[in-house]
Structures are given as C-alpha cells and as structure tokens.
Design a protein that fits this description.
- The chain is built from eight helices and 14 strands.
- It has a single domain, classed as Metallo-beta-lactamase, Chain A (4-Layer Sandwich).
- It has 254 residues and is an alpha/beta fold.
- The longest helix is centred in the C-terminal third of the chain and has 11 residues.
- It starts with a strand and ends with a strand.
- A seven-stranded mixed sheet has the order 6-5-4-3-2-1-14. Strands 7-8-9-10-11-12-13 form a seven-stranded mixed sheet.
- It is globular and about 55 Å long.
Length: 254
C-alpha cells in the first residue's frame, strides 16, 4: 500500500491569497500546501480520500492515471469541490466511480452538485458516480475499511482506517471509542492546524498528545496553515513524527 499526500493545507491553501508572511513567500516547496487529500494505492487500484478544491492540479502533478473509488470524510467545501474533475476518469475507465460517505455527507454533496445527480448526460459532460452510504465498517475492492468518528468542533465527521493506515483530518477531539479503533497503527495521519488552539481543529500540541496515546510506528501531520514553517517546526518534533508535504509518498510494510 502506497499513501500519496495530494494536499496538506487548510481550506485557504498556502500561499494564502494576499499574504506576505515568511511561509507564504517561502522557497521551500514543502511550504506550498494545496487543500488536504490523500491517495491510497494498492493492487493497481487508486482510492481517493476526499476530492479537494485543488484535485485537478494534484492529479496532474502526481500523474494519477485512474480513480477507482472516493471516500469522503465530510462535506466542507475544501474536501468536496474537486468532484467535477473526475470526469476524465469516467471517460477513460468507461464507468461510474463509487463514492462512499455518511448519509448526511452524501446529501450535502448532492445539494452542492445537483447537475451530477439529476443529469442523464453522456459520460464526458458530467461526472458519473455511484453513491454508497456507510454507517460502519465496509470493504473496498476486498480491503476492510473502518470509519473513525471524530469531532470537528461540534460536528461529528469520520476519518478512515485501512489496514495499518489511518487518516484523521479536520478533528478537534477523538472520542475514546474511536481511539480504541486506532490501536497498532503503522502510519497515522492527523490534522495539526497550527500552534495556537483552534475551536474546530487540532493544534500541534494536541496532535502530539494523540500520537503519545496511540503510539503508531510513524505519524504525519497534515491540514496545516501558514503558521507552521516546515523546516523549523519539524526540527522540534519527535523522531517518529513528521510534517507531511504535497507529493510525499509513504509505503506501508503490511
């Protein structure tokens, strides 16, 4: 299994429009962060977790040749607005792409993209998807997937565990029942927005505390804003914790 970080930034991305701070003006490419998403690849299959606003640019950058399924964590704009850009995959693959999500997430996606779900147009004109509602563990191409409920401020959304990998973005707190689903991980990816506390996102200190509790072999932080410079922040992290960056690939031994 190969994990490719397509984007590691917040809803504003980095550089932030109109900002002249050191991170936004940095020449370190690891500080250029498009909106958060990952690609999970195994057995010649590509599974997206979220279709970020920047998905087209990410797909071109990483030369993604196919998309076999999409898992949605929640329906905020920066996590869904790239859905229209799956149209070429419909054409090349000659079929619909299954999209997995909780009932409320799929309902919000329907409202955001009514033309997708109300159209009978040809494959090349609108995205073609098959909705799959999830309420518990399921399988994608024979691989078990476990939704992980987390709190994004007052709202419950989901992360996902696939084998020894878990992706938990846009969380503020993780309930104890969900922590029990995250034991024995090889790779854990966590939201770590900034240093200061935030009402709906985990900050650096909180995410480090989660890592200390779960003790994965390796942890990567994502969904980071321009308060965190890559080099200076990473220099003070424990050895098993790294900042993710756009284009980073991680291989799971399992």
């Amino acid at each position: 299994m190969i994990i490719t970080f397509l984007g590691t930034g917040t809803s504003a991305g980095i550089p932030v429009v109109g900002c002249d701070c050191g991170v936004c003006q940095s020449t370190d490419q690891r500080n250029t962060r498009t909106r958060a998403s990952v690609l999970v690849s195994f057995d010649a299959r590509n599974i997206l977790i979220d279709t970020s606003t920047d998905f087209r640019a990410q797909a071109l950058r990483e030369r993604i040749s196919r998309v076999d399924a999409i898992l949605y964590t929640h329906s905020h704009a920066d996590h869904i607005l790239g859905l229209d850009d799956i149209r070429p995959y419909n054409f090349w693959q000659q079929g619909a792409v299954p999209i997995y999500g909780r009932v409320e997430t799929l309902s919000h996606i329907r409202r955001a993209f009514p033309y997708i779900f109300e159209s009978t147009s040809a494959v090349s004109l609108v995205p073609h998807v098959e909705e799959v509602q999830i309420s518990g563990p399921f399988e994608v191409f024979g691989v078990p997937v476990t939704p992980i409920p987390v709190m994004h401020g007052p709202n419950e959304i989901v992360g996902y565990r696939i084998d020894g990998f878990a992706y938990i973005t846009d969380f503020k707190t993780i309930p104890d029942t969900s922590l029990s689903l995250l034991q024995g991980l090889e790779v854990l990816v966590l939201d770590a927005l900034r240093r200061k506390p935030h009402p709906t996102h985990s900050n650096l200190e909180n995410s480090l505390a989660v890592v200390e509790v779960l003790k994965p072999k390796k942890a990567y932080f994502t969904h980071m804003c321009h308060d965190l410079d890559h080099q200076t922040t990473e220099a003070h992290l424990p050895q098993q914790v790294r900042l993710a960056y756009d284009g980073l690939r991680v291989s799971l031994d399992s």
